[in-house]
Specification:
The chain has 302 residues and is of the alpha/beta class. The chain is built from 11 helices and 7 strands. The chain is globular. The relative contact order is 0.17. It binds S-adenosylmethionine.
């Protein structure tokens, strides 16, 4: 395949293989980020996340600051969050998943209290006494009082939400004055409607294949933060640093999808949510390399 337009070639290739092409339409059509579908996506992919992301249960990408992939790069996001946690702090993680960030941070900050809020949290053995996990939609957190939290963080989860202002409004309500919100998530280079047809198809497959809302541009994200009354403190583009991990996942997905027999096998016998995740891995690296999708770090204050 030509390295210059690999994303385009990959879409064309998938369209040319009937077993994959049939899945593309099913992935793109319909509302893929309903609460039920997000739950089903994570339940079906939990084992794959453990196997291919991190056996400790981290479900986000590694950020490789020196350009070379290392296992310690999975700690980049919790290490940045850790710098904002003071003694005795009250900390909330939105979309805590398998709880790996919470457990890592709770160990580093035994005198801080941690609450994870997730639609389908994985059960945790030996939960530390300073951690609680609540099964709930973080778009509405009545169990957390106004002005009570020092740090809220969300790693690769708010991309699932169509109504980000509702979530950021809830965050603003629970944060103490001068409290901090730290978000890691994906953004488009331009608004979706301005993309060409192939780029639109790639973005739709990546978003909906991962049970997310259509990914929004960085400018749209920033409007949502600001409409909620939060004040910008730090914005970093981590795309380049995410590429080594994306490349690792893409080469695994290529081995599955670019062999017709294995593509047929996975597309025929595995659930749509699992196939969707493989396609996300297949397209993710090239969508970053071609500047279509960014991985962003945003820090806002109340
Ligand atoms: C990619 S995982 C990230 C997990 C964790 N933040 C990490 O870095 O390992 C996204 C998580 O967000 C959760 N999630 C998505 N939308 C949610 C919502 N509206 N309310 C609560 N949890 C949600 C999913 O259930 C999933 O566990």
């Amino acid at each position: 395949m030509n390295s210059e337009s690999r994303l385009r070639e990959k879409i064309k290739y998938m369209e040319s293989v009937p077993s994959i092409n049939r899945k593309l339409d099913r992935i793109i059509s319909g509302d893929k980020n309903s609460v039920d579908n997000i739950r089903s996506y994570y339940k079906k992919n939990r084992a794959a996340y453990k196997r291919f992301h991190s056996d400790e249960g981290f479900m986000h990408f590694r950020v490789s600051k020196n350009g070379k992939l290392s296992d310690d790069d999975i700690y980049y996001q919790p290490n940045v969050i850790s710098e904002h946690i003071k003694s005795g702090a009250n900390v909330v993680e939105l979309g805590s998943g398998m709880g790996a960030n919470l457990l890592y941070l709770a160990k580093k900050h035994p005198d801080a209290s941690f609450t994870g809020v997730d639609l389908c949290p994985a059960p945790i053995k030996d939960m530390p006494s300073n951690v609680r996990i609540i099964e709930h939609d973080y778009g509405d957190m009545p169990m957390i009082a106004d002005d009570s939290v020092d740090v809220v963080y969300a790693v690769e989860t708010i991309v699932h939400c169509s109504d980000k202002e509702k979530v950021f409004g809830e965050v603003r309500r629970i944060l103490k004055p001068d409290g901090v919100l730290i978000v890691y998530d994906y953004a488009l280079q331009r608004v979706f409607d301005e993309l060409d047809e192939t780029q639109k198809k790639a973005v739709a497959l990546i978003s909906k294949g991962a049970a997310a809302a259509l990914i929004e541009s960085a400018a749209e994200w920033e409007r949502h933060f600001e409409a909620s009354g939060l004040i910008k403190s730090v914005v970093n583009d981590l795309s380049k640093d995410t590429m080594p991990d994306l490349k690792r996942l893409a080469s695994m997905a290529e081995r599955v999808l670019e062999r017709r027999i294995s593509a047929w096998f996975f597309c025929t016998f595995f659930p749509l949510n699992f196939v969707g995740n493989i396609i996300v891995g297949y397209l993710g690296y090239d969508s970053f390399r071609e500047g279509l999708i960014y991985n962003m770090e945003w820090i806002y204050r109340k």
